[in-house]
Amino acid sequence: MGSFSIWHWLIVLLIVVMVFGTKKLKNIGSDLGGAVKGFKDGMKDGSTAADSTTSPSAGQVANHTATDKSTIDVEAKHKG
């Protein structure tokens, strides 16, 4: 009783086609396909962009803060 037979699905499909029409269903299908393709392309672009950008290593950050005179090391004040 919980599962539908093929006849139930055919009747539902017939009602959907009668309500929306084949042209509207075709447009919805092509829009959905374009959205899925755009999502996949975005995921590919996002993974390649994340791989190509590298975060600075610890040595680069330490060298940058050593040359920057306006940076105050808060922990150094508490230690000394």
UniProtKB/TrEMBL annotation:
The keyword Transmembrane applies. Pfam families: TatA_B_E. It comes from the Bacteria. This is Sec-independent protein translocase protein TatA. Keywords: Cell inner membrane, Cell membrane, Membrane, Protein transport, Translocation, Transmembrane, Transmembrane helix, Transport. The keyword Amino-acid biosynthesis does not apply. Residues 66-80 have a biased composition (Basic and acidic residues). Residues 45-80 are annotated as: Disordered. The gene is tatA. Part of the twin-arginine translocation (Tat) system that transports large folded proteins containing a characteristic twin-arginine motif in their signal peptide across membranes. TatA could form the protein-conducting channel of the Tat system.
